[in-house]
C-alpha cells in the first residue's frame, strides 16, 4: 500500500477472518452474517445490551416534559441495577420509561386521584411503583403467583416509603376469593401477563373485572410469533410449545409487519373487553413494541374521569 494509506491492524484481522476474498464470491445471506456484522451492523446475537441502550436512548429523546416528570417522581429506580441511559442529565431505564407512557395513556381517560387499583400479574412491581409515586391512590392490590408475589413484595418494600407501602395488599392467586375483600376497584391493570395465562384463566379474570372494577387497562401482544431468529428459542422448544397455548390471542403473525399487526387489533379489542356493559374508551400501540397494543375500557355508568 502507498505510505499513509493502509489498513489498521483491526481491519487486517477482519479481512483475514471474516471479510475475506472468498466472502465476496457468494452474497447469499451476507447482510445477516458476520460479513455485514463487521461492516455495517453489530452482531445482534452478542450485542443485546448495546441495542437495548440504543433503543432506550432513542425513546428518551422523544419523551415530553410530562413524561420526564412522571419518571423523576419515582424514587429508588436504581434498585436492582437496571440497564440505563443518561439523556440531558437524567437517567432512565426501559421499564420506567414504559410506565410513564402507560400512565400518560391512562390519565387521559381516568382521574386516578383517590383510586383503588387492582393489578393482575405485576411482575416485580414497576407499574405499581410508578402509579403510587405519581398519584394519591386510596389502595393498590396485587394478585399474583406465590414466587412472583414474593418478588414484588420485596421490591416494593424496598422502593416505596411507609405511607405508600401501607396502601399495598398482596394476594396469592389461591386466596383470591377471600383476599380481595368486599370492596370494588376503580381500575384494574394487566401488563403483559394475560398473554401467558391459559385462555380459561383469562376468562375468569375478565369476569372478575366485570363484577368488581370500573375501568380496565390492558397492554398485551396482539398475537404470537414463531420466528426463531428473534431469540434462538433459547428457553427450549418446550417453552415455545407452551407459549403457543396461552393467552386469548394465539394467532401467529409477522410481528414486524404493521399491516399484519393492525389487522389483529379488532380481535384484541374484542378479546379483552370484560363484558357487554363495557366500552373501549381508547386504544393505541403499546410502545415500544411493534406487536403490543394497549386499551382502556370503562364500564357504562362509572364516571371515573
From TrEMBL:
SUPFAM superfamilies recorded: S-adenosyl-L-methionine-dependent methyltransferases
Protein name: NanM
InterPro entries listed in its UniProt record: Methyltran_NanM, SAM-dependent_MTases_sf
Organism: Streptomyces nanchangensis
Amino acid at each position: 500500500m502507498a505510505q499513509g494509506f493502509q489498513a489498521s491492524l483491526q481491519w487486517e484481522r477482519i479481512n483475514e477472518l471474516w471479510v475475506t476474498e472468498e466472502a465476496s464470491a457468494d452474497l447469499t445471506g451476507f447482510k445477516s452474517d458476520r460479513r455485514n456484522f463487521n461492516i455495517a451492523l453489530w452482531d445482534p446475537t452478542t450485542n443485546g445490551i448495546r441495542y437495548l441502550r440504543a433503543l432506550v436512548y432513542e425513546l428518551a429523546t422523544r419523551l415530553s416534559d410530562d413524561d420526564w416528570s412522571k419518571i423523576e417522581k419515582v424514587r429508588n429506580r436504581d434498585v436492582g441495577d437496571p440497564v440505563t441511559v443518561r439523556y440531558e442529565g437524567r437517567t432512565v431505564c426501559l421499564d420506567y420509561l414504559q410506565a410513564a407512557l402507560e400512565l400518560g395513556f391512562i390519565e387521559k381517560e381516568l382521574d386516578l386521584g383517590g383510586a383503588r387499583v387492582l393489578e393482575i400479574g405485576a411482575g416485580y412491581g414497576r407499574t405499581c411503583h410508578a402509579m403510587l409515586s405519581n398519584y394519591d391512590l386510596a389502595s393498590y392490590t396485587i394478585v399474583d403467583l406465590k414466587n412472583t408475589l414474593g418478588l414484588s413484595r420485596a421490591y416494593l418494600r424496598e422502593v416505596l416509603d411507609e405511607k405508600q407501602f401501607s396502601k399495598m395488599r398482596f394476594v396469592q392467586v389461591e386466596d383470591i376469593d377471600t383476599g380481595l375483600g368486599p370492596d370494588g376497584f376503580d381500575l384494574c391493570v394487566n401488563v403483559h401477563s394475560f398473554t401467558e395465562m391459559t385462555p380459561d384463566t383469562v376468562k375468569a379474570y375478565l369476569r372478575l373485572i366485570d363484577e368488581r372494577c370500573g375501568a380496565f387497562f390492558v397492554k398485551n401482544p396482539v398475537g404470537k410469533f414463531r420466528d426463531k431468529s428473534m431469540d434462538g428459542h433459547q428457553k427450549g422448544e418446550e417453552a415455545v410449545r407452551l407459549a403457543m397455548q396461552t393467552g386469548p390471542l394465539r394467532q401467529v403473525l409477522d410481528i414486524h409487519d404493521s399491516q399484519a399487526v393492525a389487522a389483529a387489533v379488532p380481535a384484541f379489542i374484542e378479546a379483552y373487553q370484560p363484558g357487554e356493559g363495557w366500552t373501549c374508551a381508547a386504544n393505541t400501540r403499546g410502545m415500544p413494541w411493534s406487536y403490543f397494543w394497549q386499551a382502556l375500557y370503562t364500564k357504562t355508568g362509572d364516571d371515573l374521569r
